[in-house]
Amino acid sequence: MSRVELNGISKSYGTTAAVRGVDLAVSDGEFVTLLGASGCGKTTCLRMVAGFIAPSAGSILIGGRDVTRLAPNRRDTGMVFQHYALFPHMTVAENVAFGLKVRRVGAAEAHRRVAGALELVRLGDYGGRFPAQLSGGQRQRVALARAIVIEPTALLLDEPLSALDSRLREELQLEIKRIQQGLGITTIFVTHDQSEALTLSDRVAVMRDGLIEQIDSPAALYRRPATSYVARFVGRMNFLDAVVTARSSQEQYELRLEGPDPQVFHALGRQSAAFVPGERVAVAMRPELVQLGSEAPNRLRMSVEKAAFLGSRWLIHGRAGGGTAIFVELPDGGPIPSVGSALDIGWRAEDVLLFRHDDDTRSASAGAILQGEPA
Ligand SMILES: Nc1ncnc2c1ncn2[C@@H]1O[C@H](COP(=O)(O)OP(=O)(O)OP(=O)(O)O)[C@@H](O)[C@H]1O
Ligand SMILES: [Mg+2]
């Protein structure tokens, strides 16, 4: 039983509230990722679970045991840090054995477990090397072996792959997942990389300003973001400003887009929030759910400014009337609009998401802050 629970955890540094009352329950064997922008409190949360930072308020339970006041080495957590934290003067095997030595595990047993852990991270032949003789990816494998060799109740990983190039990163993501699932170990992973979070996790907690804004499965987070902040942070999203003109039932809304040529839009308000006629809302649509042509539902005209080839698909940049940036994704193989042309685009009502307008007010610049945008 290795459930990890954070109950109302807060941490303040003077007047800075780094974490402001986080509740999180990670089930036995579950992989949960804390995802969020720099400074939102991810590392602080993880270090409180590990015991390196004492919370200002709240409690932490691991396997049902209250560990809030326990020292890190009494919590049975294995931690991997963002920056390589290997001892340079120790060999790989000595590095991995370190936690066992601290725990006074006998030499024969330690030798066996170190060999097993190195085998698990595919570094069975590297025990005699020093960290300086390893690549970055190999060093992080050693750090992972060192964390799991103590057979921790929970594995805590703070951006373990962020210093690696994208190819190696993807390879190690698969390795981490394989090892985590093989051991069935409860894991909290921290990253600011949304694709990494979606790839690895059973559930993702999107953090913002010291709080969890939404926690859900990767698919639910992507399809049903609870707030425009989450919608913007996870995947690409188009945003337009609109006013609710009618609400025909609990589920259906008629909207008028704001701008020089007001369009009528329809949306199925499947989210929890209800909106009232006259209310300003942010209307959001995924680039890849676009429909083309003059028959498209909820139709707009965009001027095409750029077409970027992404391999299996094209990312089309342009603007709607009023100048709002619009992104659409089209599969490779179909017709690709030329730069300077006008394109009729639209979204099905069930693919139009609505958010409170004051939820996150930067809707007009949505495209500009997305990650990994081709220039
Ligand atoms: N020792 C400290 N003293 C004062 N403020 C701190 C301290 N450690 C962290 N903070 C502040 O707490 C907030 C959260 O920091 P934290 O390191 O948890 O962020 P993070 O989400 O891990 O960010 P990143 O993605 O950049 O690693 C930040 O505003 C940071 O400046
Ligand atoms: Mg951090």
Automatic annotation (TrEMBL):
Belongs to the ABC transporter superfamily. SUPFAM superfamilies: MOP-like, P-loop containing nucleoside triphosphate hydrolases. Residues 4-234 form the ABC transporter domain. GO terms for molecular function: ABC-type transporter activity; ATP binding; ATP hydrolysis activity. It is a peripheral membrane protein. Keywords: ATP-binding, Nucleotide-binding, Transport. SMART domains: AAA. The keyword Iron does not apply. It comes from Bosea caraganae. It is found in: Cell inner membrane. Pfam families: ABC_tran, TOBE_2. Gene3D superfamilies: 2.40.50.100, Nucleic acid-binding proteins (2.40.50.140), P-loop containing nucleotide triphosphate hydrolases (3.40.50.300). It comes from the Bacteria. This is ABC transporter ATP-binding protein. GO terms for cellular component: ATP-binding cassette (ABC) transporter complex.
